[in-house]
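fyi for ur records
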Amino acid sequence: MHGIQTSGNCIRNISCDERAGVAPDEIADPRPFAEVMRQWTTLHPEFAFLPRKFKIAVTGATEDRAATNWHDVGLRLLFNAAGELGFRVTVGGGMGRTPMTGKILREFLPWQHIMNYIEAVVRVYNRYGRRDNKYKARIKILVKAEGQRYIDDVEIEFREIVDNDGGPHTISQVELDRVTASFVPPELVGRKAVDLAEIGSQLDGYAQATPMFGRWLQRNVAVHKDPSMRIVTLSFKRLHQAPGDASADQLELVAQLVDRFSAGEARVTHTQNIVLPWVRVEDLFDLWQSARDAGLASANVHLLTDMIACPGGDFCALANARSIPVAEAITQRYQDLDELDDIGEIDLHISGCINSCGHHHSGHIGILGVDKDGKEWYQVTIGGTDGSGRGESARPGKVVGPSFSASEVPDVIEALISTYLQNRRPLEARAERFIETLQRIGHEPFKNAANEARAAAETV
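which gave:
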């Protein structure tokens, strides 16, 4: 990641999965491909003045934690029937005032040609994208407006690049190997062989003796491709702290934890938490104790209070409404971890304006700040997903009704949760998640509950 081209109408930083290179569901490490493309796109003279900003995301895992379908270009590594590695390419995703998910342009593209193909995608966009209206300048508008014509033009341009120009940006194995050499597992100082069965038994004992540690193991610790290691998420979501905020003291403490427990490496997630990708199994209890003492051991990852929120009107000049007080009010209401565990996994996202920096479109529950006659109001959407997996495909949520005042929002959220709890069904090993119940029974019961909550608040 770098600051070059920040805020320009150009290809921005290329993002990937926070578990890249360590996830057991990974087909191939996306980081070398992202870095090759970063070097190519940085200060690219042809794409320095596009119609609008341009974002690329790449994932190598079966679970799409990079939310690739919500990007201008989304790339997913996969193998074809012949066992060859390549990319599925989607184009035209984006949020903002016209949320759209990407359209598949290629089900399979050999990895060697990914930069040639992206050049074709961006070149056609640069040629035909609108520059007269910034609200209609993103590539998603062009893809929707032109449909098959856009796809055909990209394929023609790609063939021109490969056949007539000789594919100047074809990635060689030598080049990929050169960049891949920068992404190697760290040498864990003092590493010793351990009996994983014995360590597992010890952790079970700690979890039984200390239930909070057991919750943390379940919520904040994920499996690693190395059986002797784990991926740990430090949650920054707690009462009286805005989602995404971190104090200088907290960052100092995180740096100490990272040096001690994760080989000096930490990763920031799009859910506004920090991941430690190189934690040894035998260090988990010590890490939890240290994180707890630092106030960073909230066992709420993927639960209701692990929300995404933009800075909103408290800090952003573009915002129509504040996000932080709404996030605080919801967090205040749902402090009981037993209740949160019973509600289960649910994505709550808050944006202070239509620019969607809080990703409200992709939240199972989304909250959008709007301006009505100079006052702050909030639209609530349900049913959105980022397509990260768990049987979900990326799609925007639907508005449940007229906008609500800030004081009504917590009651509306509670009404939506209550409707879910009343209607969910048990499955074989677990209960239905919020999004599964919503998909089964439809939006109407939730809309009715939200509007009843408003009526009750107005009566009071």
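The longest strand covers residues 103-110. thats all i got for now
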